[in-house]
Design a protein that fits this description.
Two copies of one chain form a homodimer.
Chain A (H helix, E strand, L loop, with lengths): L1 H7 L3 H10 L6 E4 L2 E3 L2 H15 L5 H12 L24 H18 L8 H15 L9 H20 L4 H35 L2
Antiparallel strand pairs in A: 1-2
Chain B binds a DNA duplex (30 and 30 nucleotides) through helix 2.
DNA sequence: TCAATATGGATAGTGACTCTATCCGCTATG
DNA sequence: CATAGCGGATAGAGTCACTATCCATATTGA
């Protein structure tokens, strides 16, 4: 276990904690108080840290995501997996705002030819976010939401294209999770870089 | 204060807490133990909740962001403001990985004509994220990072375009913050919708 | 062989964070 | 003039992600 610890950079006590929490499968027993850990444990451990540190998931979230990876029954909806563990902000929303948000979302859906289900978790969080815009009286900032949707679609296409190029189901499932969680961090950072540059260009600073 | 509470939906005790933490300016005193709160307090309070709930910022982060809004000395770098409070994952990174990540970032920078400063916080977090990809041996998922960058640039242009259309400096600064924090949540949700749709289309589910 | 060290497992404790509850002296109001 | 509510201070609650200690057993080095 000390070996596993030094290979992954995670303290022994923390590894024990993850084992207790079921984030890490127990090692192969060699004797009543001895276990062997292999390469897949190191990998899993790194995965856990990535989800926690970069993805910002909670322990429970990581558990869900890993469970979803493990009992992958299908390749479809594989991109929905990572959403299980994602922190979903749920501001309370009155019916009027919700209706307004839904109509906006449906408009976007029509433009893009998307099939929007109103009971979806993603739609739910989208409604929440939109309502916060409304709450702050900054619906003016939603003026170009169509452009957002177009770019989001482009990004989704890139994501899917990359995944479908992967060889094994295993790598696809894992890639979907990593692509969702780390991909968010990655794209967000790139967006910030873009801001800096566009801002410099525009204001000729 | 009870009024402020019911207008914003935030418990009185919590408002007191925010006051203590400096997230909310004290009300205008009408007597030694009486204060009046106005519309701007309600607004500020909603802003605080938005940053906490949707943006996922910490109290300290919110304080920083609000402080940045308040002493807005310039309109330039206004989009960098919100980054102050954002949770920045900082995985430790060895020199080799860092060098690899930096070269990748610079390549992207050249393609897009971006001026990349290696000591920037954004670049820093980008390096961290890229190194996690490497750590997980999934650099294959970075195959289309150029496309990511292109889309990120497009998004940044949309953001900037929207901001520059705003009338007052005040609304621009606030819009930048909201656009960064809520905009992330918004775009992420749209990306997920795009995933669902693209996945359905592709796998004809 | 046998003492020193390490192991896995259980349990309890730590520190940070975000509230929340209670108390207090004062004051505006009916 | 009683009472209800105010702002302010302080302490407590609950969660979360670890971390430290203890223990009986097992491996290892001299």
């Amino acid at each position: 276990m000390a070996e596993l610890s030094s290979a992954s950079g995670v303290p022994v006590a923390t590894i024990k904690y993850y084992l207790r929490e079921g984030l890490l499968p127990p090692g192969e027993r060699t004797s009543p108080n001895q276990a062997r850990y292999g390469e897949e444990h190191v990998r899993r451990l790194k995965m856990v840290r990535a989800l926690l540190d970069v993805g910002g998931l909670s322990i429970a979230g990581v558990r869900e995501v890993l469970a979803a990876i493990d009992d992958r029954t299908s390749t479809h909806s594989v991109l929905g997996i990572a959403q299980h563990g994602l922190p979903a902000p749920k501001p309370r929303v009155d019916d009027e705002s919700r209706a307004w948000a839904m109509s906006l979302i449906e408009k976007i859906g029509e433009e893009r030819g998307w099939d929007v289900k109103s009971d979806d978790v993603v739609v739910e969080s989208l409604v929440g976010t939109l309502c916060v815009y409304a709450e702050l009286n900054r619906t003016d900032l939603l003026a170009r939401i169509s452009d957002y949707a177009e770019l989001a679609e482009g990004l989704a296409e890139v994501d899917l294209g990359m995944l479908s190029a992967l060889p094994t189901t295993e790598s696809i499932v894992e890639g979907a999770v990593i692509g969702t969680v780390l991909g968010d961090a990655l794209f967000t950072a790139l967006r910030r870089l873009g801001h800096q540059n566009a801002s410099a260009r525009r204001f000729r600073r």
